[in-house]
Design brief:
It is a single chain. The chain is mainly alpha-helical and 78 residues long. It has one domain. Helix content is 62%, strand content 10%. It contains three helices and two strands. It has helices spanning 22-38, 42-55, 58-74, and strands at residues 2-5, 16-19. It has a two-stranded antiparallel sheet with strand order 1-2. The model has no long low-confidence stretch (mean pLDDT 94).
Length: 78
Protein backbone atom coordinates (compact mmCIF):
# COMPACT_ATOMS: atom_id res chain seq x y z
CA UNK A 1 0.00 0.00 0.00
CA UNK A 2 1.28 3.47 -0.89
CA UNK A 3 0.36 6.94 0.33
CA UNK A 4 -0.12 10.24 -1.50
CA UNK A 5 -1.67 13.51 -0.42
CA UNK A 6 -4.22 15.73 -2.08
CA UNK A 7 -1.44 18.29 -2.70
CA UNK A 8 0.78 15.68 -4.38
CA UNK A 9 -2.10 15.01 -6.77
CA UNK A 10 -2.66 18.65 -7.67
CA UNK A 11 -5.10 19.44 -4.88
CA UNK A 12 -5.06 21.93 -2.06
CA UNK A 13 -4.77 20.08 1.25
CA UNK A 14 -2.91 17.40 3.17
CA UNK A 15 -5.70 14.79 3.00
CA UNK A 16 -3.99 11.39 2.79
CA UNK A 17 -4.97 8.65 0.36
CA UNK A 18 -3.70 5.07 0.70
CA UNK A 19 -4.05 2.43 -2.00
CA UNK A 20 -2.30 -0.41 -3.78
CA UNK A 21 -2.56 1.12 -7.25
CA UNK A 22 -2.30 4.56 -8.78
CA UNK A 23 -5.78 4.12 -10.26
CA UNK A 24 -7.23 3.62 -6.78
CA UNK A 25 -5.43 6.71 -5.48
CA UNK A 26 -6.65 8.75 -8.46
CA UNK A 27 -10.24 7.64 -7.80
CA UNK A 28 -9.97 8.57 -4.11
CA UNK A 29 -8.59 11.97 -5.08
CA UNK A 30 -11.44 12.47 -7.55
CA UNK A 31 -14.06 11.63 -4.90
CA UNK A 32 -12.36 14.00 -2.45
CA UNK A 33 -12.37 16.71 -5.10
CA UNK A 34 -16.09 16.23 -5.74
CA UNK A 35 -16.74 16.50 -1.99
CA UNK A 36 -14.69 19.70 -1.76
CA UNK A 37 -16.52 21.07 -4.83
CA UNK A 38 -19.88 20.43 -3.16
CA UNK A 39 -18.62 22.23 -0.07
CA UNK A 40 -17.38 25.07 -2.31
CA UNK A 41 -13.95 24.95 -0.64
CA UNK A 42 -12.12 27.93 -2.15
CA UNK A 43 -8.61 26.43 -2.06
CA UNK A 44 -9.81 23.28 -3.81
CA UNK A 45 -11.84 25.27 -6.34
CA UNK A 46 -8.65 27.16 -7.26
CA UNK A 47 -6.74 23.89 -7.64
CA UNK A 48 -9.56 22.49 -9.79
CA UNK A 49 -9.41 25.54 -12.01
CA UNK A 50 -5.72 24.87 -12.66
CA UNK A 51 -6.48 21.22 -13.41
CA UNK A 52 -9.18 22.23 -15.88
CA UNK A 53 -6.64 24.34 -17.76
CA UNK A 54 -4.32 21.34 -17.89
CA UNK A 55 -7.15 19.10 -19.08
CA UNK A 56 -7.78 21.39 -22.06
CA UNK A 57 -4.68 19.83 -23.64
CA UNK A 58 -4.87 16.03 -23.86
CA UNK A 59 -1.12 15.83 -24.36
CA UNK A 60 -0.35 17.91 -21.27
CA UNK A 61 -2.90 15.99 -19.23
CA UNK A 62 -1.31 12.69 -20.27
CA UNK A 63 2.16 14.00 -19.31
CA UNK A 64 0.85 15.11 -15.92
CA UNK A 65 -0.92 11.79 -15.34
CA UNK A 66 2.21 9.79 -16.24
CA UNK A 67 4.41 11.94 -13.99
CA UNK A 68 2.06 11.29 -11.07
CA UNK A 69 1.96 7.57 -11.87
CA UNK A 70 5.79 7.49 -11.83
CA UNK A 71 5.81 9.42 -8.55
CA UNK A 72 3.41 6.80 -7.11
CA UNK A 73 5.48 3.91 -8.44
CA UNK A 74 8.66 5.00 -6.66
CA UNK A 75 6.96 5.59 -3.30
CA UNK A 76 7.80 3.09 -0.58
CA UNK A 77 5.09 0.73 0.60
CA UNK A 78 3.58 1.92 3.86
Amino acid sequence: MKTMTCKQLGGACDEVFRADSFEEIAEMSKEHGMDMFQKQDEAHLNAMSKMQELMSSPEEMEKWFESKRKEFDVLPNS
